[in-house]
Amino acid sequence: MRAIRRTISETEALDRAPQPRPDKIGARTEKFAHHWDRLIERWSREFGSSFVEDYAFAGTERHRVLHRRVYDGRIEVTEHRIRVHNLPESFCGLRIVQLSDIHHGLFLPFHAVLDAVELANRLQPDVIALTGDFVTYSRAYIEPVAAILGTLRARHGVFAVLGNHDFRVGAEGVARALRHEGIEVLRNRHTIIRHGGHTLPIAGIDDLWYSADLPRALRGIRADSATVLLSHNPQIIRRAAYYRVSLVLSGHTHGGQVRLPFAGSIFGRSPERMRFKSGWDRLGPTQIYVSRGIGTVVLPVRVRCPAEIPHLHLQPHDSDRSLPHRPGSEN
C-alpha cells in the first residue's frame, strides 16, 4: 500500500508540472511508467480475464452475441456478432474495429498507441471507428497520436468522432490533425460507404457535453436504412433510440476502469447501474456497444477491467419485420 501512495503522490506532482514534449519524456517519467507496468502485470496475473459469454434477451427478442475475448498483451480483442435490421446483403459480415479513449499522454506513451494500432491493423477490418478522447491534458500530444493513427488501414475507411477530452484540449486542432492523416472526422454529419451496389450510412456526432447535433447528423438518411452512429458518450442512447438508429458505437466510460471485488466500479456493481457503461446492450430498436477503451484517466491503472479493442461482425437480422418511421427522416 505504501508503494501505491508514493505513486499517487508522484502523479499529482507530474500533473502540476509543465507538460513535456512526447519525444522528451525524462527518466523520472520512464521510471514511473515502469513501476506501473510491473504493478499492472502482477494484477493481470491475479485477476485473469479470459472467458466466453453469450448475451441473451433484449426486450422481447433474443439476440445472441458471440463474445470471445482474446488476450494480447494488455489489450483484449473482443469478438461480437451484431444482427442489424435491414442490413444490405453486400454488407453481410462487414467487420468494424473500434478504437476508443486512447488518451495519449503521460499515462499512455507513444509505443502503447503503436501497439494498439498494429493490433487493429492485423485484424484487417473493413471499417475502423475511432470514438474519441485521443489525447489528455496537452496539445503537445495531438500531432504524434494523429500521425500513428494515420497508419490505420481499413477497406472502406477510418472514421472518427471527438470526445470531451479532445474538446478540452482543442477540438479544431484534433480534428485538423486527424484529417491531415487521411482520417474522416464526422462532426454532426454522416458519410456513405458503398459496396456491391448497396450503401451503408455511418454518422458521427460531437461529444454530448459540447455540441452534439444528432438530427443534423442523420439528416438525409432514409428511414429504413441500417445506420451506424459513432458517439463518444453512450448517454446518446435514448436519443438514438428515438431516431431508430440501428447501432451506436461509444466509449467514454472506460468500463469503469477500476472494478474492485464487492465494491464494483465508480458506477456501482448492479446490472442496472452498469447498463450502457460497458459492452453490448440495446434500447428499443437501437443496439449499442460501449468499449472499455485503451487508455486511462485520473490513475494510470486498470483493475479487472482490461483495455479493449472490439471487433464487430455485422449480420442481417433474421426477422423481416419492418421498422416504424424515423422521426424527421426523409423517405
List strands and helices in order, with pairings.
Layout: H1 2-16, H2 27-46, E1 52-55, E2 65-72, E3 75-84, E4 95-99, H3 110-122, E5 127-131, H4 142-149, E6 158-161, H5 164-180, E7 184-185, E8 189-195, E9 198-204, H6 214-218, E10 228-230, H7 237-242, E11 247-250, H8 271-274, E12 279-283, E13 286-290, E14 307-316
Helix pairs in contact: 3-4, 4-5
Describe the structure.
It is a single chain. The protein is an alpha/beta fold and 331 residues long. The chain has one domain: Metallo-dependent phosphatases (Purple Acid Phosphatase, chain A, domain 2, 4-Layer Sandwich), CATH 3.60.21.10. It has 8 helices and 14 strands. An 8-stranded mixed β-sheet has the order 1-2-3-14-4-5-6-7, with helices on one face. The model is unreliable at 1-33, 43-73 and 319-325 (pLDDT under 50).
Q: Give the low-confidence spans.
A: 1-33, 43-73, 319-325
How many helices? The count is 8
Alpha-beta content class: alpha/beta
Largest sheet: 8 strands, mixed
What would the principal axes of the Cα set say about the shape? globular
User: Order of strands across the biggest sheet?
Assistant: 1-2-3-14-4-5-6-7
Name of the CATH architecture: 4-Layer Sandwich
Termini separation comes to 62 Å
- C-alpha Rg (nearest Å): 20 Å
Provide a compact summary of the structure.
This protein is an alpha/beta fold. The chain has helices at residues 2-16, 27-46, 110-122, 142-149, 164-180, 214-218, 237-242, 271-274, and strands at 52-55, 65-72, 75-84, 95-99, 127-131, 158-161, 184-185, 189-195, 198-204, 228-230, 247-250, 279-283, 286-290, 307-316. Helix 4 links the parallel strand 5 and strand 6 (158-161).
